[in-house]
Amino acid sequence: MAKKRKVVYFLGAGASLGAGAYAKIQAGHLIPIPTQATFWSTFLRFCRHNTNRTLIESFLFRYFLGYKKIPGSVLSSKRRELLTAVDVEEVFTFLSERTRAPSTSPQLRSYAKRIWTALTAEIGHVFTRFEANTQTRATYKAFLNRHFRKFDTVVSFNYDTIFEHSLPAKRPAKYLGIEKSSGTIPLLKPHGSVNWYLTNDGRIAVGDKPNRAVIVAPTHLKFVSGPETTDATQPGYLDQSPEIRRIWAEMEREMRAARTLVFIGYSFPIADLYFASVLRSVLADRDAAPEIVIVNPDAVAIADRLKRRFPLQSVIRYFDIEQYMQAQRAA
């Protein structure tokens, strides 16, 4: 009976934003957690190392905006605004493809690897700047009271720890797939987390703001396999640890057992073909399609796109997280 009632909740970047996550900067100003439109501006602002910031910014201007070099006469804040239209997933996909493609010149391959290393090193630091607050705690308290049941599972595609740090102390998250993680709210993080790090034996452990976080980059090339592959633990890829592969497998099992899949703040980006392939496999192997719920300001467009891509008859739509939290789960 529990399996028939199981709901799997997916949290995308819009979930943290909709819940009210922000970072504090000088003079008490608040910077909302980034999504696609604000990613590069926020990312470059919060980079820990100036060398990485300059390297990444120069790459973005050259390969995605056509500049020969960073426009030095433009204020840094204005320069970052110019990067608004640069698609995050496309950047990571370009880099992962260029580092593996046989036709890539040695010079470009080396350069792409440098950019990849800088990006994956900085992501953890950037997203640790965003912490739980009164609003996020209220939002996820409502989520637990109105929607979550003990047989449900939460999947977070986010690197940040807003969800787990917003939970009540008596109901902590349990990272499924990670040893020595205990709690009452089952949580899968297939893209990694800013509080995870790799131990010397290649296993994932949980810590407080590690020097280099375990993340899976937003690219459809989730695996490192390809020509000249010598290291299956390269940061940013799904193959970097056994736990990451186990988490993806467990997510797929949970999806097969679920009555309903609820996507909060996740827009099904075109570049995330790997998750799309997981969803396609799940739908093909089930006797009946699960109920699909989309919680997103662009819910209409996303629902239409999903029905064109997947064998879904209907998609339930909510337009913001507060609207969804006000709804009461029927069973």
Can I get a quick summary?
The chain has 331 residues and is an alpha/beta fold.
Describe it for me?
- The strands form 4 sheets. A 7-stranded parallel beta sheet has the order 5-6-4-1-11-12-13.
- The protein has 331 residues and is an alpha/beta fold.
- A hairpin with a 5-residue loop joins strand 2 and strand 3 (30-32).
- The chain folds into 2 domains: 2-22 and 133-326, TPP-binding domain (Rossmann fold); 34-128, no CATH class.
- It has helices at 2-5, 13-19, 39-46, 50-64, 76-82, 88-100, 106-128, 134-146, 162-166, 242-257, 273-285, 299-309, 321-326, and strands spanning 7-11, 22-24, 30-32, 153-156, 173-175, 185-188, 192-193, 196-198, 204-206, 214-215, 260-264, 291-295, 316-318.
- It is built from 13 helices and 13 strands.
- The mean pLDDT is 91.
Q: Keywords, please?
A:
single chain; 331 residues; alpha/beta; Rossmann fold; 2 domains; seven-stranded parallel beta sheet; two-stranded antiparallel ribbon; 13 strands; globular
Mean pLDDT: 91
Estimate what percentage of residues fall within beta strands: 5-15%
Q: For this structure, what is the CATH homologous superfamily of the largest domain?
A: TPP-binding domain
Classify the helix fraction into a percent range.
Answer: 40-55%
Give the strand order, joined by hyphens, for the main sheet: 5-6-4-1-11-12-13
Number of strands: 13
